[in-house]
Amino acid sequence: MAHGEVLEFEEYVRTRQDALLRSARRLVPDPVDAQDLLQTALVRTYGRWDGIADKRLADAYLRRVMINTRTEWWRARKLEEVPTEQLPDASVEDATEQHADRALLMDIMKVLAPKQRSVVVLRHWEQMSTEETAAALGMSAGTVKSTLHRALARLREELESRDHEESAARALEASKERERCAA
Fold it and tell me: Which distant-in-sequence residues (6+ apart) come within 8 Å of 108 by Cβ?
């Protein structure tokens, strides 16, 4: 490349580097990778600078080089998979427990008074603030807080009593099973 073209390329880079870096940042999310992308594209373009007849199209040419480089990097990326002798335990999300929890929650909500139920639903399911809940229900913020406190305490009591009942039922079932086995 002739000395005049080298100076022309240097001037081009000096005047356009900010705009070109912005283009690179749009192509890759990491700012450091964007700088690397731009530098790689500039090196590749430098070797072909004399072949660009209309220098007004240099931005378009350089952007195309950045896109092609980014595509090459993407294709050459290393996958994080590592072959092993043993397969890992497969974890499958089972919505059954989630549905059972929701059904239990809906069932124990029946023990609450309507006002308590309304406060719990607005605060925890609708995720309203204390003030928003108070405005929606026409009560003071202090009343919302105390009602919510009592409602959550009542829900905890109900859950604990149901857990205790389930434990007792399981123990009784196990006892009957042992008696059958012994007979």
Answer: 155, 158, 159, 162
